[in-house]
C-alpha cells in the first residue's frame, strides 16, 4: 500500500521550521536593566517605614531617646496594630512643643521617662523601650498611672492620636456627620434583620 501524498501548493516539499529568537539590542538591555534597578531600589525605599530612631531625631527639647520611649509608651497606652509609629510620633509632637516652651513640662517628661526606665531596669534588667513582652510594659505603666507624668502623656495622646484625620480611616471612623445631615438618614438605620 502506498502512503498518501500531500496535495496542494508546495506539495512534496519539506517544511522548514524557523526558530525566532528575540534579539535584544544593547540599548534595550541597558534600558530594561536600568528600570529594574530603579524598581528594586526606589519602590522598597518609598514603601519602607523609617525606623523610630530616624522619626524622633528632630525632637530637640526632649531628646531622641526620650521621644523613642514616649512612642513606646504611646503604643502601649493606645495599642493599635494597624497604626505605624509615624502616627504615634505625630501624637507626641505636642509634648515636644510643650517641652520646648516650658521647662517644667520638659523636666516632668524627661524625669518621668528616666524613672520609668529605672523601674524597668530594676524589675526586668533593661530600659522600658527594650522590653519585648507587652505584659511587662503594661505592668510598669499600671504602677505609674496616677502620676502627673502618666496623666500628662495620656491626656496629650488622646487628642494627638484621635484628632489626626489621617488615622480615622485606619480605625474605621468616617468623621463627623452632622454637617451631612447626621447618621440617622445616612445608613445608621439600614439594618434589615431587626
From TrEMBL:
Species annotation: Cupriavidus basilensis
The major lineage groups are: Bacteria, Pseudomonadati, Pseudomonadota, Betaproteobacteria, Burkholderiales
Which protein is depicted?
Gluconate 2-dehydrogenase subunit 3 family protein
What InterPro entries does the record point to?
Gluconate_2DH_su3, TAT_signal
Q: Which superkingdom, per the lineage?
A: Bacteria
Among PROSITE patterns, the record links this protein to: TAT
Amino acid at each position: 500500500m502506498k502512503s498518501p501524498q500531500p496535495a496542494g501548493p508546495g506539495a512534496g516539499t519539506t517544511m522548514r521550521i524557523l526558530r525566532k529568537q528575540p534579539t535584544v539590542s544593547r540599548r534595550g538591555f541597558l534600558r530594561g536593566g536600568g528600570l529594574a534597578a530603579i524598581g528594586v531600589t526606589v519602590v522598597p525605599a518609598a514603601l519602607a517605614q523609617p525606623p523610630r530612631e530616624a522619626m524622633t531625631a528632630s525632637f530637640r527639647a526632649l531628646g531622641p531617646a526620650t521621644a523613642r520611649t514616649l512612642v513606646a509608651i504611646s503604643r502601649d497606652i493606645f495599642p493599635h496594630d494597624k497604626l505605624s509609629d509615624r502616627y504615634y510620633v505625630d501624637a507626641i509632637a505636642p509634648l515636644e512643643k510643650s517641652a520646648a516652651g516650658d521647662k517644667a513640662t520638659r523636666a516632668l517628661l524627661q524625669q518621668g521617662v528616666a524613672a520609668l526606665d529605672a523601674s524597668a531596669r530594676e524589675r526586668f534588667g533593661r530600659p522600658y523601650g527594650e522590653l519585648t513582652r507587652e505584659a511587662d510594659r503594661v505592668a510598669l505603666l499600671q504602677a505609674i498611672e496616677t502620676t502627673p507624668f502618666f496623666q500628662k502623656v495620656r491626656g496629650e495622646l488622646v487628642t494627638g492620636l484621635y484628632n489626626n484625620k489621617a488615622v480615622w480611616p485606619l480605625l474605621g471612623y468616617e468623621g463627623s456627620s452632622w454637617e451631612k445631615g447626621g447618621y440617622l438618614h445616612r445608613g445608621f438605620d439600614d439594618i434589615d434583620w431587626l
